[in-house]
Amino acid sequence: MSRLHLHRAGRRRPGVPVLILLHGWSCHGGFFAPQLEELGGLTEVIAPDLPGHGKTADAVTPSIEAGADALAAMMQQEGIAEAVLVGWSMGALVAWSMIERHGSDRLSTLVVEDMAPRVINGPDWTLGTLNGLDGPRNAVFLKAIESQWPLLAPATARRSFALDARKELVEFAEREMRKASPPLLAAMWRSLTTQDFRPLTPRIDVPVVLARGARSQLYSLAAAEWQAAHLPRARIETFAQSGHSPHLEEASRFNDMLVGLIERRGRAQGAANA
């Protein structure tokens, strides 16, 4: 049995890839409710709680690498031979780490939702977070996570959406984020801010959709363009009304995009087997 707690919907169908959804930092798999509710009629949908988050908590070491290993183990245990994998924010780091450590043989498509391959800015990289987070500022933030998380959660929730996002979305995010464990959050933040997947990017051999929010408060269009220029097979999908969370802010359009990816792969698989 997977050590990751899994939110699930739908059932597996022959020749149709499974949809796996990886959430962002301070969130959990339930943040993909619109996808779990709407896409289960098409295929099996799985949204794990990643290490340090939700009901997985400390059952898995709170690090990006441990999350990647646990994801690969879950896919093997579940017999998932082909998946559309969505990595939202921190979830993209887990997806990249899994590809780096275990390969991409089980993936048909990767969706990177509003994320850069490196979070921290520095002399050789200015496409991390838009607020210019660098090493010294990150050290201060790490200390604040453990000691002041109830005060940080509201701002974290607001920055997860466009500035004029629907009130109920921000309130939901803040309520759920407050439940997170500060020590585990700090451990995962420490891990995610050490990651640098720029060297991996040109080696990713599956199609990649860079799903970005045009009104993101966290990452720029330039970060998506850098990835598109360095990935062998990539396209940018822009969600004009969204901030950092298109799957929640424009859920219907985001779901339509996923349906297209799943059905296109299913048709290709059917043609190959004909």
From TrEMBL:
InterPro entries given in the database record: AB_hydrolase_1 (IPR000073), AB_hydrolase_fold (IPR029058), Carboxylesterase_BioH (IPR050228)
Residues of the AB hydrolase-1 domain: 19-256
UniProt xrefs under SUPFAM superfamilies: alpha/beta-Hydrolases (SSF53474)
A Pfam family the protein falls into: Abhydrolase_6
Protein name: Pimeloyl-[acyl-carrier protein] methyl ester esterase
Organism: Stappia indica
